[in-house]
Design brief:
single chain; 172 residues; Rna Polymerase Sigma Factor, Chain: A; Arc Repressor Mutant, subunit A; 2 domains; 69% helix
């Protein structure tokens, strides 16, 4: 729950608050829990709904790249060299920046599908959508993310080439 909230909200303190509220809300609504359904899914649905509500309350997303509490990366592999770790971290930060541009429901659907491997039916149930709506949102989000990724990578390559050319000798 905390991990889902942290990925959606990108703020460790808010994620802790949302996780606590989710447990509290689940406890208060325990008599309405359907025993035929998985408890974890019900709890994650409560969490994702609280995250979406929290995101709606925000007028804009602001976070500091220097803020260590927003470190959403998995623990690094000690076998990888520093250059690989830095490259992976940069790519993960770029992906997170692109995810931040999605609407809260689209972001929740993407996170549930690709981080938590929810089925379309489970996502539809958790976000109160139809299965076709989930598929449509995911398709649209993937296209949007892919287009933005390509644009971002092109800009990075252009900046890298411009920087390199500034430092090269005109004789070569």
């Amino acid at each position: 729950m905390h991990d889902l909230a942290r990925r959606m909200l990108r703020d460790a303190h808010e994620a802790e608050d949302v996780a606590q509220h989710a447990f509290l809300n689940a406890y208060r609504a325990l008599e309405r829990f359907d025993l035929e359904r998985p408890f974890l899914h019900w709890l994650l649905r409560i969490t994702s709904n609280l995250c979406i509500d929290q995101l709606r309350k925000r007028r804009f997303n602001a976070f500091s790249i220097d803020d260590e509490e927003n470190n959403w990366l998995d623990p690094s592999d000690p076998e990888k060299g520093p250059d690989v770790l830095i490259s992976e971290r940069e790519k993960q930060e770029q992906v997170q920046m692109l995810l931040d541009k999605l609407s809260p429901k689209d972001r929740a659907a993407v996170v549930m599908r690709y981080w938590y491997e929810y089925s379309y039916e489970e996502i539809a149930q958790e976000l109160s959508l139809t299965v076709s709506s989930v598929k449509s949102r995911l398709h649209r989000s993937r296209r949007e993310l892919a287009g933005q990724w390509m644009t971002m990578q092109t800009k990075i390559a252009e900046q890298t080439n411009a920087e390199r050319m500034r430092h090269e000798s005109p004789a070569f």
